[in-house]
Specification:
The protein has 248 residues and is an alpha/beta fold. It has a single domain, classed as NAD(P)-binding Rossmann-like Domain (Rossmann fold, 3-Layer(aba) Sandwich). It is 45% helix and 15% strand. The protein contains eight helices and seven strands; from the N terminus they run E-H-E-H-E-H-E-H-E-H-E-H-H-H-E. The chain has helices spanning 17-28, 44-48, 61-70, 94-126, 148-168, 186-194, 198-207, 217-228, and strands at 8-11, 32-37, 52-55, 76-79, 129-134, 173-180, 239-242. Helix 4 packs parallel to helix 5. It binds nicotinamide-adenine-dinucleotide. Nicotinamide-adenine-dinucleotide (NAD) binds at residues 12-13, 15-19, 37-39, 42, 56-59, 80-84, 103, 134, 136, 180, 182-183, 185-188.
Length: 248
């Protein structure tokens, strides 16, 4: 049997990057995945592979209530949605600051709040439910240049995760945060392409990875599977760093 056999798992931002990789990995382990993304077109390929999909912009509170409420009780939730705003404090304008909070942490509150009653029912029925929240090594784990709004919101993700873990540990609901290093995803490729010197930007990203390469999405997906599975049943409230050695 798969490691997530029989579990109902909702994933946000599953259209590409780590969310997509996690959706495929969870489905391969027997989960009944609901893969969601703001961009419905990005979900077509998952649907063609037999994975249930739904368009969901996590910043739309009404849509969150409808999609999460309509998903049935969840055993697992992977809050993967997030955006990267570049810039030091002096370059960060208020609109970007607010957009970062809206997507990276306010939406996580709304999605998790909407899923909570079902997660608690499943925890009571089966003894286990699990939330995985996407943070980053750029957070309270480590400061990075030009990640002011981003790092602030990802630190908030870790604080939110620990508070959920503390409040519901006795109910059987666990929560952990994932802190990846630099991962080769479409949005990273976009950040590289937007740099003044893209080839140099790519070399710089790789240079800060002691393991000498960017992460592949499948360097992260197994950790998501583990955290959503009962194999991690004695673990909650942790910020799990998978960063190619950056924080050694
Ligand atoms: P990505 O950035 O290439 O893709 C992100 C996906 O999120 C897209 O499919 C997009 O449509 C979706 N999305 C954006 N806003 C949304 C919204 N409001 N509602 C629903 N979906 C929305 O993929 P990625 O790089 O794997 O990033 C996923 C998460 O991982 C983000 O939270 C990001 O901050 C985090 N992260 C990325 C890296 C990295 O190096 N790539 C490192 C650490 C953490």
């Amino acid at each position: 049997a798969g490691r997530l056999e029989g579990k109902r798992i909702l994933i946000t931002a599953a259209g590409q990057g780590m969310g997509r990789a996690a959706a495929l990995a969870c489905a391969a382990e027997g989960a009944r995945v609901l893969a969601t993304d703001r961009d419905a077109g990005l979900l077509e390929d998952l649907a063609a592979q037999g994975i249930e999909t739904a368009a969901l912009d996590v910043t739309d509170a009404g849509a969150v209530r409808a999609v999460v409420g309509g998903a049935g009780d969840l055993d697992g939730l992977f809050n993967c949605a997030g955006i990267v705003v570049n810039g030091a404090l002096g370059d960060t304008v208020e609109a970007e600051w607010h957009a970062s909070f809206d997507v990276n942490i306010h939406a996580m509150f709304h999605v998790t709040r909407a899923a909570l009653p079902g997660l608690l029912r499943r925890a009571e029925a089966t003894g286990a439910a699990s939330v995985v929240n996407m943070a980053s090594m750029a957070s309270s784990v480590k400061g990075f240049a030009n990640r002011c709004a981003y790092g602030t919101t990802k630190a908030a993700v870790i604080g939110f995760t620990k508070s959920v873990a503390a409040d519901y540990v006795r109910a059987g609901l666990r929560a952990n945060a994932l802190c990846p290093g630099t991962v080769d995803t479409p949005s990273l490729r976009g950040r590289i392409a937007a740099a003044a010197d893209p080839a140099q930007a790519e070399r710089d990203f790789i240079a800060r990875q002691p393991m000498g390469r960017l992460a592949h999405v499948n360097d992260l997906a197994p950790m998501v599977v583990y955290l959503l599975s009962d194999e991690s049943r004695f673990m909650s409230g942790q910020a799990v760093v998978v960063d190619g050695g950056v924080t050694i």
